[in-house]
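Section 5.1 Outputs to date
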Amino acid sequence: MNAEGDGGFRRIALVGLGVMGGSLARALGALRHPPTRVGWSPVRGESLEARSQGALDEAPERLEVAIADAELVILAVPLGATVRLMDTLVEGTRGDAVVTDVASLKAPVARAASVAGLDARWVGSHPLCGSAESGFRASSADLYRGARVYLVSHAPAEAALDRVAAMWRTLGAIPEHVDAAAHDANMAAVSHLPQLTANALAAVLSAAAVAPGALGPGGADMTRLAGSSPEMWREILAAEAGVGTYLRALSRALDDIAGDLDAGDLDAVTALMRRTREWRRGS
């Protein structure tokens, strides 16, 4: 292990160089003793741009070359691609290479890693951070600083878990080991519901001919997630089924508020606002 206590990874391959992968490349490069960063993106121009900006040390054209000698492989690609790449990692990496990913659902990746025979080498990561923008140009070396990172692993991966957790801590993140199924159930409430709520609000505003530039700070904050990638979210929503329950509960809550306003019952609306203010202050 090196002086930074970052898991001892001297050569790290980053597969995917969008906001998440690009930010990792930048953050790793900012360490006092940075590892060799090898990056590959399905969009060739993205890896070349990352290399030209000093976010990568090497940018090979082929994925197989990028991962061949890595001590840690980080998958920063959409959920479906993460699952599909597990077999490639078994065949194309060193037998002692650790594998992690940043997909926002962990149970599907955990199953794929197990089927591929990566139980002792895979540690799933889910950093609770990101951006409504996409691509390498939206990446930042500070993206992970202060962010909670949920970690998921199989029992044989205890040593790999310690090393991945150490790496995240070195980047200023806060790792926490959790159960995959419980993690995914929780994400329906804390991640998927806010995303779809922002989409619904943006749709209502659009139908009312309200331009984004006309919004105040609150409206801008609440609709920020509406700019997220539909393709990425399609894969996520196809893999989980819990968000519908929360959306229906939200719909009922909104209907109740509308009914109270129609009836002139401002006491009920005010009471709701007091309860939610106290909830927010308790965070």
